[in-house]
């Protein structure tokens, strides 16, 4: 009976993940774009750089590309965020359910395993989504750098880029940076899900007898756990972003893999380079996961689809 209930509730869990992802991405995408540009910029031989900080990057991008420019690459993200968030949240629930002890408890280590497996499942969608999104987000920075040396960069769309990669490299062309994506997302989920569950369990419960946390508790728990996990994995995110940037600005280094990227970033830019865009990423991830967990725990899909909360 418990198994049937688990399968029955899977559909609304997936829909909740999708709704949460779309709302969250729409709210924070401009900051995510700024984060990508900060992480991808490399310091010149004389210490020159296009953006000095998050605010400077935001101002320059808005001034040069306008409001719509701040959402460059959002279409592919919104399209793929539904399956990505759905897989992540539903997989975590699935693994938490199946990793319970005979006493129906879930020790912290098993919570971490469940989170890590959920993160592993999502990279099927996350890797191509991030690859295409990063090219779109970083296009304005690369074009501006090219203009400074009298060159131009041909504009392209996410569709053209995806078709070009498929034609040249097959389906594997869309999975460049899979290792770095796996490192980031598995580690993030290992930290995030147990931390969220712990924080969420500390808050007050609803008065309807469901035993679930109140609205603000789920939201704040998601924000806190998300921002902490985001900062912890920022070095892996910098490496992933650099590896997935297919078009480099004039004079920028390319990397052959995770190890090569780590060594060269450390050598030429120092340890602080691994935390480029860290504050930006925390600001992006906190509301993204706060919104996600709130939609998930409020059961928006259950209400819309007429399902009973399980």
UniProtKB/TrEMBL annotation:
Which spans of this chain does UniProt mark as Solcar repeats? Answer: 8-98, 106-202, 213-302
Q: Which reaction does it catalyse?
A: L-glutamate(in) + H(+)(in) = L-glutamate(out) + H(+)(out)
Q: Where are the transmembrane segments?
A: 283-305
The listed locations are: Mitochondrion inner membrane
Q: One GO BP annotation here?
A: malate-aspartate shuttle
For this protein, the record's InterPro entries field holds: MCP, MCP_dom_sf, MCP_transmembrane, Mito_Solute_Carrier
What domain of life?
Eukaryota
- What keywords would UniProt list here? Membrane, Mitochondrion, Mitochondrion inner membrane, Phosphoprotein, Repeat, Symport, Transmembrane, Transmembrane helix, Transport
Query: What protein family does this chain belong to?
Result: Belongs to the mitochondrial carrier (TC 2.A.29) family.
Protein name, UniProt field: Mitochondrial glutamate carrier 2
Upper classification of the organism: Eukaryota, Metazoa, Ecdysozoa, Arthropoda, Hexapoda
């Amino acid at each position: 009976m418990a198994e049937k209930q688990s399968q029955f509730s899977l559909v609304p869990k997936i829909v909740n993940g999708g709704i949460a992802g779309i709302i969250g991405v729409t709210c924070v995408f401009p900051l995510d774009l700024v984060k990508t540009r900060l992480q991808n910029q490399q310091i010149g031989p004389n210490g020159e750089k296009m953006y000095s900080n998050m605010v400077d990057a935001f101002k320059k991008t808005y001034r040069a590309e306008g409001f719509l420019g701040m959402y460059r690459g959002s279409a592919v993200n919104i399209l793929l965020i539904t399956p990505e968030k759905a897989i992540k949240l539903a997989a975590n629930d699935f693994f938490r359910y199946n990793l319970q002890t005979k006493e129906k408890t879930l020790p912290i280590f098993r919570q971490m395993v469940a989170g890590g497996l959920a993160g592993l499942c999502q990279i099927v969608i996350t890797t191509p989504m991030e690859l295409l999104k990063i090219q779109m987000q970083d296009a304005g920075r690369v074009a501006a750098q090219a203009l400074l040396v009298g060159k131009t960069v041909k504009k392209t769309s996410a569709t053209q880029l995806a078709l070009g990669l498929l034609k040249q490299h097959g389906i594997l062309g869309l999975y460049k940076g899979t290792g770095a994506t796996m490192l980031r997302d598995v580690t993030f989920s290992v930290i995030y899900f147990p931390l969220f569950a712990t924080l969420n369990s500390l808050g007050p419960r609803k008065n309807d007898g469901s035993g679930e946390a109140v609205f603000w508790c789920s939201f704040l728990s998601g924000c806190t756990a998300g921002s902490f996990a985001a900062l912890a994995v920022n070095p892996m995110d910098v490496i992933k972003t650099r590896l997935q940037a297919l078009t480099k600005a004039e004079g920028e280094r390319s990397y052959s893999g995770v190890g090569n990227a780590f060594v060269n970033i450390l050598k030429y830019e120092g340890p602080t380079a691994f935390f480029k865009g860290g504050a930006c990423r925390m600001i992006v991830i906190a509301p993204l996961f706060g919104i996600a967990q709130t939609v998930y725990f409020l059961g928006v899909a259950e209400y819309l689809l007429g399902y009973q909360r399980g």
